[in-house]
Amino acid sequence: MKLYDSQMAPNPRRVRVFLAEKGIDVPLVQLDIGKQEHKTDDFIASVNQLGQIPTLELDDGSHISESMAICRYFEEIQPAPALFGNDAKDKAIVEMWNRRVEFQLSSCVAAGFRHTNKFFAELEDQIPAWGELNQQKAPGRFDWLDGVLADREFVAGDHYTVADITALCGVDFGKVIGLRIGDDRPNLARWHAAVSSRPSAKA
Question: What domains can you pick out in the chain, each with its CATH number?
Fold first, then answer.
């Protein structure tokens, strides 16, 4: 088993943090996004048809891509600690918040970067106006998450879940568009300090 990874990108980091929380060690194969090593003919033909990472290669030679699909695989083979929730209601709530954070915050930050930065000029059909719009919207998404965290310890409630991993990676990635938490978001700052202090955050 091995995981095709990139230290530069937020989605592979989501998987690394998840694995660290689980205490699971998977060999990493580092790919240089800048050199488009994930877009080579060989990688597309044999690993991921869309040329995307992270991608998990299993011992039988099959592949699982998409960060949350990979995390769900490891949740199934090692349920504890339960990062996708415990009972039916808890799992639904975690799923809801994970998707909200991904769509409302992480995707906004990513679009703000991918559609304006020269790094992605050869990797993306850039629409600068779309990137600029998302950069303008991103601070409001930080404000939204600060409000969410006003009455709870973690994003989905009273325990750490995959929703916190998604939020951590999204908030940290905000730095690429110059976005910082700031003193005017005390709930977000408190939460960020707590989740960043976990050993898994350094994965």
Answer: 2-77 (3.40.30.10), 88-202 (1.20.1050.10)
